[in-house]
Amino acid sequence: MARSRYLDAEAVNGLKMISPTAIYALLMLAVPLFLIFVYSFLTDGYLVIERIPTFANYVETWTSPVFEKVMIRSLGVSMAVTAATVLAAFPMAYYVSFFVEPSRKSIWLFLITIPFWTSYLIRVFLWLVILGYNGVINSTLMSLGIITEPLTAILYNANSVVITLAHAYAPFAILPIFVALEKIDRSLLEAGRDLGETPFMTFLRVTLPLAMPGIISAIMIVFIPTIGDYVTPTLLGGPEGKMVANLVQLQYLKLDNYPMGSATAVSAMAMVGIALIVGFAQSKLFRRVYTRLIGGSNAGTSVAIAALAVVTSFGACILAGRVLNGAFFAVVLSVAIGHIAMLIWLRAREAK
Amino acid sequence: MMKGGGFKIYAFVYLLFLYAPIVLLPIFAFNNAAIIAFPLSGFTTKWFEILWVEPQLWVAAQNSLIVGVSTSILSTTLGVFAARASTRYAFPGKGGIIGMIMLPLVLPEIILAVALLVLLLGIGIPLSLFTVTLGHVLVCTPFSIAILSAAFQSLDKSLEEASYDLGENAITTFWLVILPLVMPGIISSLLITFTISLDEFIMAFFLAGTDTTLPVYIFSQFRFPKSVPVIMALGTILVLLSITLLSIAEYFRRRGIAKSGGSDTGGFL
C-alpha cells in the first residue's frame, strides 16, 4: 500500500513537472494539427471560410493532375534522398564509432553537425553556385577538357534537389546510426570472430542487425521532413522540380485557400504514412518468410527488401496512374489497404 | 590506425562534401564580381561595406535578435521542465507525452507552420515577431530537451537525496543542488536554440506577417541577382557567428556532462 502511494506521488510530480512543456505542445502543435484536419473538410468562401462540411477539397486534390505529379515527384525525391543519405552516412558513422579514438569522437560529431546548424538558406543557395551553368562543377570539368558544353542535367530539376537535400540531411542520418553502433557490445564482435566467422560475416550477422534500429530511425528522420522541404525545390527545383510544399505554400499564401491547402497538407502526410506502413509491413513479411524457410532472422536484408518493396509499390502506383487515367487515388488507397490488412494478418499469426 | 584506412579516406571525402558550400561562401564574399561564378576576379571588401549601410538589413537583424533571445529563453525553460521530468520521474503516458513534444523534430516544418498559421488567424492573433517566436519555441524545444536530457541523465541521484537528508525541500534542492550542476547544459541549450532560431526560415516566412527576420530578408534578396554578393558577405558573417556560438555551446555541453559525473557520448541528438 505504502509503495503504491509512493508511486502515485512520483507520477503526480512527474506530470506536474512536464505539464508546462506538454501544455505548450498541446496548444501549439496538437490543436493546430487537429485544426488543419478540420479545415480540410470546410468550404472556402470569398474572404471567409464557410462552415459547410464537404469532401470536395479531397476530391479536387486527388483528382488533380498537378497534385498527382507533384506528389509522385516529392515521394521520388524523398526516397532517393533517403537512400543516398543513409547509404553514405553508414560508413561515416561506422568509421567514427569503430575507428576513432573515444576521446576524439565528440570532436568528429561536432564537425559533422556544424554545417547542419549554419545558414540553411545560404547553403542551399550555394549549391546553385556549385551546380550552375558557370558553376564549380561545370567550370572544373570544362577546364579539364572532360566536357565541352556545360552540363544542364544538374540544375533546376529533381536531380539538383536530391543532391542538395542529401547534403542538408546528412547529419540527421549519421547521428542515429552512430548512436546505435556505439551501443553494440564490442565483445559480441570478438565472440563472432572466435566462433570462426570472417570479419565481413561478423559485420553482416552481428553489427548490421544491431545497428538496424539506428538505420530505421535515420530513414524516418530523413524521409519524413524531406518530403515537405520548401526551400530547396523553390531555389533549385526550377519548374520541373517543384514539390508538395510548394503546392501547400501556393494554396495558403498565394491563393489564400486554406481548406484546399489543408487538404493538400493532410494528403501529403497521409502519403508519408502510407509509404512507412508499406515499408513496415513488407519488412515484417520478409522476416516471417525468412524465418519460416531458412530459420533465424535477418534484419538487414528485411529492411533492404522493404525499401525495395516501397520503391516497387511506388512504381506500380505511378504506372497504374498513367495507364488508368485518374486512378492515382484508387491505386494508392488499395496499396494502403492491402498493406494494413497484411500487417493485421501478420500480427494475428504472431499472436498465435 | 591502419585498419580504418579506407574508412578514413571516405570520412575525409565526406567531410569535404559537407563543408563544400561553407568553404565557397567566403570566396565569393570577397570576390570582386557581381556574378557568383568562376573564374574569380580579384579581392574586394566592398560587399561588406554595402552590407554595413543597408537599413533593411539592420531592421531584420534586430528582429532576429529579439526573436532569437526570446526563443532561446522560452524553449530552454520548457526544455528544463521536460528533461527533468523525463529523466527523474516515472509517470503514466510518459512515452506519449514526450513523443508529442519531440514530434516537431520529424514533422516537415511547413506542416507545423501552416497548422500554426491556421490556429493563430483562427483565434485572431495578428502575425508579428511574437507569432514567429511561438513557432520557433515549438521547433527549438525538442533540441533543448535532447541537450538537457544528457545533462540531467548523468546527474547522481544521491546528491539530491543528500540534500533532502540535510533538510532542504524540493524547490531549494533544485535551486541549490541540481541547477548549478546542469548549468553548463542550460547555457549550451540557450546558445544552440538561439542559433537554430537565427537560422530558421519556414516558420518566419509563414508567421512573420510584415516583419522580416534575417532568413526572410535573405530569401527575398535571392530574387535580385545584384544583391547576391552582399548576401554572400552576410552569410559569411552569419556562419562565423554560428560556428562561434556552437563551439561555445559544445564547450559547455561537455563541461556539463563532466561536472555531473557522466561520460561523454558525444553529439547533440
Q: What is the secondary structure topology, with strand pairs?
A:
The complex is a heterodimer of chains A (352) and B (269).
Chain A lengths: L1 H38 L3 E2 L4 E2 L5 H8 L1 H34 L6 H13 L2 H12 L4 H8 L14 H11 L1 H14 L2 H9 L4 H29 L3 H6 L7 H11 L3 H36 L5 H25 L4 H24 L1
Antiparallel strand pairs in A: 1-2
Chain B lengths: L4 H25 L16 H7 L2 H34 L5 H9 L6 H14 L6 H25 L3 H9 L4 H30 L2 H6 L6 H8 L6 H32 L10
Summarize the structure.
The complex is a heterodimer of chains A (352) and B (269). Chain A has 352 residues and is mostly helical.
Structure description:
The complex is a heterodimer of chains A (352) and B (269). Chain A is mainly alpha-helical. Helix content of chain A is 79%, strand content 1%. Chain A has 15 helices and 2 strands. A two-stranded antiparallel sheet of chain A has the order 1-2. With 269 residues, chain B is mostly helical. Chain B has helices at 5-29, 46-52, 55-88, 94-102, 109-122, 129-153, 157-165, 170-199, 202-207, 214-221, 228-259. In chain B, helix 2 (46-52) packs across helix 11, helix 7 packs antiparallel against helix 8 (170-199) and helix 8 runs antiparallel to helix 11 (228-259). The two termini of chain B are 28 Å apart. Chains A and B meet through helix 1, helix 3, helix 4, helix 5 and helix 8 of A and helix 1, helix 3, helix 4, helix 5 and helix 6 of B.
